[in-house]
Amino acid sequence: MPPPPVTRIPRDEQPTRDKTGTLDVPLKFLDQDYQELKKSCFTNNITYVDEKFPSNSSSIDPKKKLGLDMEQIQWLRPSKIVGDPQLIVKGVSRFDYSQGSYLGDCWFLASVGALTFQKDVMDQVMPVGQSFGEDYAGIFHFRFWRFGKWIDVVIDDKLPTINGELIFVHSNTSNEFWPALLEKAYAKVCGSYADMHAGLVSEALLDFTGGVHVHFETAKTSIDLWSLMNRAEKAKALMACSTFLGKTSANTELPNGIVQGHAYSVTGVYKVTCQEKPVQLVRVLNPWGKGEWTGDWSDKSSLWDKVSEKERSRCRSLANDGEFWMSMEDFTKNFEDIDICCLSPDFLDSSSECRWTSTCYKDSWVAGTTAAGCINNKDSFWRNPQFRVRIEKLDKECSGQCPENILVSLMQNHEKRNRSEVSNYAIGFSVFAIPPEMKDAKLRIPNMFLYGRRPIEGSGNYINARQVMRFFKLEPGEYLIVPATFNPKECAKFILSFFSKSKSHRRNN
User: Which residues form the signal peptide (predicted)?
Assistant: First the structure.
């Protein structure tokens, strides 16, 4: 028997007014209430101790993958490390911290570097009003977006050290502790510090913003990537990029200063005039806090002598702080991909008059019904969840700009406590044009329509990742989007997000 039709209501069209999981009313992670816990600390005249993320090896490296000698580690509060601990010293900056030696979380810290540029987003992640001052009780909280919901994460301020030194991320100002506390809160969400080892920058960018994520392979996209990055910067987007893995191993530094298999923050996009010719530049930051590009437009490049004094003073820096400029041409040669995350996708189009709209669907692949596998499984593929969309003709202000008018994102969620234990499926989606004779059908599109039919668009290859996305063009009409795992009987919850720059499109099941 075929699975019954399911009416799916987009998240932004649901009749319920439940605000749980929003920034205003975030979910309490592990049922810990920051205000109540802090109040209890003052009532009982104690400093907070987090029993759900204890100061022992289970919170650092439960499976002993990092090679740390746990007997050497002491968990110390900042007041035991320095005499005058501060949460923030002279504002939040990308130069405040450097990556620790024991943990490969450059993907997370590259995202933090991008986060420091956006105060509004930073204040969402690290709520204001926290300090080591009069209201100090050894308790802090941070907020992250996780699979469609905002969560509030409570931690105590005990940090792992060896010989009084922080073993993971550390501040370049000795008494500043926001980077270490932010890293600890994210480690708690991931299950442990070791669960943060290795990852994709897109994961943290999304968890910081809950926004729109786009991903481009620098050498393969036909989009004017520098112009898009320039618009994204003006839209206050967070951007990060990753280098090629190379033939040897990750973290190998090349002769030109670039580290293979490494994540970087994108911290600036600028155009200079060199010998009467425009040059598109990109500024990049190494989360190690050192190690820089040594080619054209690097700190000591003679090309800076060929631009105006105004441009040189604005851009050039000789500090060995891990940040450097390079041309867009060199950027695409040395960086494999770029991830951009923004609260609104309006930056995708070059018209300031065009506005993108969005809908988010939550569903799941269920064993025996909708976990039907990819399109290669011709007899069962149609059983996958189906989503209909109607694309209307573009308004005048949205036409004639970038041809792509649709962005589809698919994210899977296995809801496991420890991030390293999550085994993502290879996922993707297919887009089919619905013929006129079926546009008024209320039920699922049957197998006789999908059997052997080639999709007109889709995610391309099925990818073993938390999220896949595709930016493409659709003509006005009705379409069916079918998200799937590559193999049948693979079960997980998922979020399908659909963005369109058409003002008047509607969606129905």
Answer: none
